[in-house]
Amino acid sequence: MDSKKAQEISSSSVMANVTYNGKQIYIEHVDQQKGMATIHPLDEPSKKETVSVTNLIEQ
């Protein structure tokens, strides 16, 4: 995924089906300049991590 698409998904009111390492995630924030996103698994909201947007997959 690219930074622009990740930002669109993050800003949308519609929940997108996005995965990271095979787990469904929620995108909290996107830093488009760095190409990084703050995410958490849908089933673990307190487990936040920052990852490259290129590792996010929209299903």
Overview of the molecule:
The chain is globular. A hairpin with a 2-residue loop joins strand 1 and strand 2. It has 59 residues and is an alpha+beta fold. Strands 4-3-2-1-5 form a 5-stranded antiparallel sheet. Helices cover 15% and strands 42% of the residues. The chain has 1 helix and 5 strands; from the N terminus they run H-E-E-E-E-E. It has one helix at 3-11; strands at residues 18-20, 23-31, 36-41, 49-52, 56-58. The longest helix is centred in the first third of the chain and has 9 residues, at 3-11. InterPro entries: SASP_SspH (IPR012610).
Which terms would index this structure?
Small, acid-soluble spore protein H; five-stranded antiparallel β-sheet; 59 residues; alpha+beta; SASP_SspH; 1 helix; sporulation
Summarize the entry for a quick read.
Keywords: Sporulation. The chain is of the alpha+beta class and 59 residues long.
> If strands are numbered along the chain, what order do they take across the biggest sheet?
4-3-2-1-5
Termini separation: 11 Å
Q: Number of domains in the coordinates?
A: 1
Instruction: Classify the secondary structure makeup into a structural class.
Output: alpha+beta
Q: Categorize the overall geometry.
A: globular
Tally of DSSP helical segments: 1
Topology as a string of helices (H) and strands (E)? HEEEEE
Biased composition (Basic and acidic residues): 41-50
Subcellular location: Spore core
Organism: Metabacillus bambusae
Region (Disordered): 38-59
